[in-house]
């Protein structure tokens, strides 16, 4: 999809504008153009949606399966045969494995970012996951060593796979398009990501304020004063509200009814 990144980003901007103005014709047109781009690139939107759904249960199943074996504990895991990790059912007393896991995650993020879609927010999302990996160190501190060995080995295998699949000879042999450097994601500093998050939050707040009133008293008062009538009046606001505004709207409706 990298060669079509500019077109997809333009369509995304048009879609956001159409959503704000509630222009249904433009939304349908943009959706059709986006579908045509995916077909031209040979990408199945259904496949893209199904793949994470298939991978997630396997990944989580392996993680919790290994953890269950360590918690049980499986007798063989108590004798790893490695001097610096003699018992895989216990947490690493040195604290090295959680740190290595976080480092491995950051390496994989760097390698995997090269093949991600060049969207404006992707570099900031990568920084967000980098922060999560560091925050996760204390959370992984008390995990059994066997679980962390599994995590590190899995991430290492993924990193090796990413490096191998980036080789032009391998890509040509497997029929995978070669991604030009101009299509790769440009890294962003953490300060830039913080500024981006602030602007995103301000835009979302403004969007909610523009789409739906925070003060629902005028909507919920007046005639008709029946409960059904108030719900009908509120529905007109909810229909044009964004998903975030719907949460605010329903919450304030509940407070109003309870009062």
Strand content: under 5%
Helix content: over 70%
Mean pLDDT across the residues is 76
- Characterize the main sheet: none
Number of domains: 3
Query: Which consecutive residue ranges, at least 5 long each, have pLDDT under 50?
Result: 212-216, 238-244
Order of helices and strands: HHHHHHHHHHH
The helix/strand class is mainly alpha
- State the end-to-end distance: 52 Å
**Shape annotation:** globular
Number of helices: 11
Tally the beta strands: 0
Rounded to an integer in angstroms, the radius of gyration calculated over CA atoms is: 25 Å
The oligomeric state of the chains shown is single chain
InterPro entries: YidC/ALB3/OXA1/COX18 (IPR001708), YidC/Oxa/ALB_C (IPR028055)
GO molecular function: membrane insertase activity
Keywords: Membrane, Mitochondrion, Mitochondrion inner membrane, Transit peptide, Transmembrane, Transmembrane helix
Subcellular location: Membrane; Mitochondrion inner membrane
Describe the overall structure.
One of its GO terms (molecular function) is membrane insertase activity. With 259 residues, this protein is an all-alpha fold. 70% of the residues lie in helices and 0% in strands. It has 11 helices and no strands. The protein has helices at 5-21, 24-41, 45-71, 96-113, 122-140, 145-165, 168-174, 190-211, 217-220, 227-239, 243-258. The longest helix is centred in the first third of the chain and has 27 residues, at 45-71. Mean pLDDT is 76; it is low at 212-216 and 238-244.
